[in-house]
Specification:
The structure is a single chain. The chain contains 5 helices and 4 strands. By secondary structure, it is mostly helical. Strand 1 and strand 2 form a beta hairpin. The protein starts with 5 loop residues before the first helix and ends with a strand. The chain has helices at residues 6-27, 29-37, 48-74, 77-103, 107-126; strands at residues 130-131, 138-139, 143-144, 151-152.
């Protein structure tokens, strides 16, 4: 796995969007019908739940660009393509899983669990304040790099 929270955030956004989408279809179908017959990409001047859904889609696109940038900086082009294929399959799985689970009302629990997993991953990545001057790996504190043995002061 790459050293980034963006891929997990992308899957979380897909899960959130799918949950909102299914919630709209179950609880406020007239809002979804309005959107279906009057499609828009603007999250303004639409009902609140639809605005949240559209904002999550826009945020998904922005994070997808961040994932692409991060992937091609950290991996070779061939490895990045295969990573993207795996990430796309994970997003597709999240979409169908959360659509089906939200329909039977346990998707909300899974979404809360997914958010906790994401928060834990973000909290774990915050601990790295430094980078090695020789190899560029992340370090929690100054001193000897555990990856290449260089002394960082």
């Amino acid at each position: 796995d790459i050293d980034s929270v963006y891929p997990l955030f992308l899957c979380l956004l897909m899960a959130f969007s799918a949950t909102i989408y299914e919630s709209m279809q179950v609880f406020v179908p007239e809002t979804w019908e309005h959107f279906y017959f009057n499609p828009t990409l603007s999250p303004f001047k639409v009902p609140f739940i639809l605005s949240v859904f559209l904002l999550s889609i826009w945020l998904f696109l922005i994070v997808a660009l961040a994932v692409l940038d991060d992937l091609f900086r950290q991996l070779t082009p061939a490895a990045a393509i295969f990573y993207l294929l795996g990430l796309m399959s994970c997003c597709i799985f999240c979409y169908f899983f959360f659509i089906l689970m939200t329909h039977i009302y346990i998707g909300y629990l899974f979404l809360a669990f997914f958010m906790l997993v994401f928060a834990k991953k973000v909290h774990r990545n915050i601990g790295y304040k430094y980078r090695c001057g020789r190899c560029g790996e992340k370090l929690k504190q100054k001193g000897v790099c555990p990856h290449c043995g260089a002394i960082n002061e």
